[in-house]
Structure to design on (138 residues):
């Protein structure tokens, strides 16, 4: 377990170092959070979910689940219960839950184009000396 955590930490540090060099080259990053559906069989103890999706397609936010005898609302703790009670009094059974809705944050690289230089012929005429081409026909 320690080796996995060390590998993840090294990967993150490497990404940060690589990202820092690209920031200087004229790129920007934007944080994007997406909701990923994770099947209940793949849920681990450390999985933090934003909600649950039932087999019928109904989505339930994790804040609507009543907190009972556990410190944090983790999906693994919620699915271990005999029944899941919601704040409105509704009862859901863990067998009905098909997916855990897990937020995943990642960085997207944004490239911005510099303004292209304009030539003298592309500028708009200024003053009386430079008239528009249709006015010079006189």
């Amino acid at each position: 377990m320690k080796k996995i955590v060390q590998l993840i930490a090294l990967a993150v540090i490497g990404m940060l170092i690589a990202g820092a060099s690209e920031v200087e080259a004229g790129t920007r990053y934007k944080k994007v959070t997406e909701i990923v559906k994770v099947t209940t069989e793949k849920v681990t103890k450390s999985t933090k979910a934003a909600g649950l999706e039932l087999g019928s397609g109904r989505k339930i936010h994790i804040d609507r689940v009543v907190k009972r005898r556990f410190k944090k609302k983790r999906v693994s703790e919620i699915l271990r219960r005999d029944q899941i009670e919601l704040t409105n009094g509704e009862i859901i059974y863990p067998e009905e839950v098909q997916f855990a809705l897990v937020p995943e944050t990642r960085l997207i690289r944004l490239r911005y184009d510099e303004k292209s230089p304009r030539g003298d012929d592309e500028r708009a005429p200024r003053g009386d000396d430079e008239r528009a081409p249709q006015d010079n026909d006189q």
